[in-house]
Specification:
This protein is mainly α and 185 residues long. It has one domain. Helices cover 56% and strands 9% of the residues. The protein has seven helices and four strands, in the order ββαααββαααα. The strands form two sheets. Strands 1-2 form a two-stranded antiparallel ribbon. β3 and β4 form a beta hairpin. α2 runs antiparallel to α3, α3 packs antiparallel against α6 and α4 crosses α5. The relative contact order is 0.17.
């Protein structure tokens, strides 16, 4: 996804901006898929998948890769790198920005988050949209990367109890007890 934002104005006053417009139907469809990896209650929530991989991978290099990916996921959501946005004197981290969109607009009707999202739209902050798109793009790359890591591990028998260790059969697909294994990733 390419993003170009042009802002015209002086000081803190934005008078005009140009940016790409997303097709709303395509964006909502994408969000329906993305939420399966992003939202805590979903079975494919990335920290949970990382925890399962950590427990199932027999190869230490693969475990290290998954651990690095999990750390990058958490850092991206904290907003310590890349685009940051301060609204009304408060840092808007990417996780909160994405949550506003999901819980305040698309998937749930959280009254407080809907009101905060409405306020953001009233401020006409193009950077809010840019922040969300940038971070969702980065997180999507991580999801795809994790998928490649898992596919490689499956293909090369790098799972505990998988064909390489047991001489055949299907690899285990159970998740770690208690959901995500953030202490080990």
């Amino acid at each position: 996804m390419n993003w170009c934002l042009t802002i015209r104005g002086t000081g803190h006053e934005v008078r005009e901006y140009e940016g790409p417009e997303l097709d709303e139907e395509d964006w909502r469809s994408f969000c329906m898929l993305f939420r399966q990896f992003y939202m805590r209650g979903e079975p494919l929530y990335i920290p949970r998948v990382c925890g399962a991989c950590w427990q199932l991978f027999s190869d230490e290099d693969m475990k290290r890769e998954v651990g690095q990916l999990h750390a990058e996921w958490k850092q991206t959501l904290k907003g310590t790198t890349g685009t940051i946005l301060v609204v009304d004197g408060v840092l808007l981290n990417p996780e909160h920005a994405i949550d506003l969109l999901f819980y305040g607009d698309y998937f749930h009707s959280d009254v407080e988050e809907a009101a905060e999202l409405k306020h953001m739209r009233e401020l006409k902050l193009p950077l809010y949209k840019m922040l969300v798109l940038e971070k969702v793009r980065r997180l999507t790359g991580m999801i795809l990367n994790l998928g490649s890591i898992v596919a490689f591990a499956l293909e090369h028998g790098l799972l505990r109890g998988g064909p390489a260790e047991s001489g055949g059969g299907e690899p285990s697909t159970s998740t770690p007890k208690g959901g995500e294994a953030s202490a080990t990733c």
